Amino acid sequence: MSCTECKNKLQVRISADDIMEPPWKAYNVLKKMDYPYEHIVHSMKDPSIANFWLITLPQIVGGFDYDEDVKKKIWWQYEESMRYDQLRDLVAKRNPGWEYLQDALVSIDPVRAREDPVIVKNVPYYKAKKSLEAEVTKLNPPPRPQNWGELNLPLNISSWSEEDLKNPAKLYEKTVLLNAQREIADKILDAQWEAKWRQEKVEEMLEQKVRPYIQDSSMAVLPQPILLKSQKKAQKGSRQRKWWFF
């Protein structure tokens, strides 16, 4: 005797829902996390955070586990990249010998070093400019011109009405705030003027040092060109002379 509804099929349901948590539950939790995307490059310097981004996160999103060989390859690539970043931090400090570390960066990853802003393309020019900047820093800039620079100040005379100025406390407040604002604005303009003057002074000194080399190269006279006869033409001419004698 058999069941007509089951049609002799074994009614057994096999499921792993009660054995392990499905991967999408962890993924739903992961989506609610606030990733530090703006600091991801800096945070990758921490090996534990790098392990999360490179191994843990892809496994949760994909619902699979990496083999040990794959994990070793991923981590080896991470260590190679970190070797470049560690050297790059040393080069950016510009301590003595940084130019040799820069050569090591180029040898580790030439493609990345080509577009890296930390890499100095012309080391002698960079050192000469830094030397001039150090000299200019010791100089005292001239006083700022009276009407140089403009600032959009938040307070002015019209910030107080005539009724307010009848009150001695408001009048005192106006005087104090406008004077303090003027002092702060003068300091900001003085700093801007000093930075602008030093930058122009460095460019002027660089031009003075480079101009003699430009003049020497422009006034140099090219030697008379040496014209060499083509070997084919010489052979052709000799053949013609041979036929002429015959």
UniProtKB/TrEMBL annotation:
GO terms for biological process: regulation of leaf morphogenesis; thylakoid membrane organization. Residues 1-24 form the AtTam37 zinc finger domain. GO terms for cellular component: chloroplast; chloroplast envelope. This is Uncharacterized protein At5g53860. It comes from Arabidopsis thaliana.
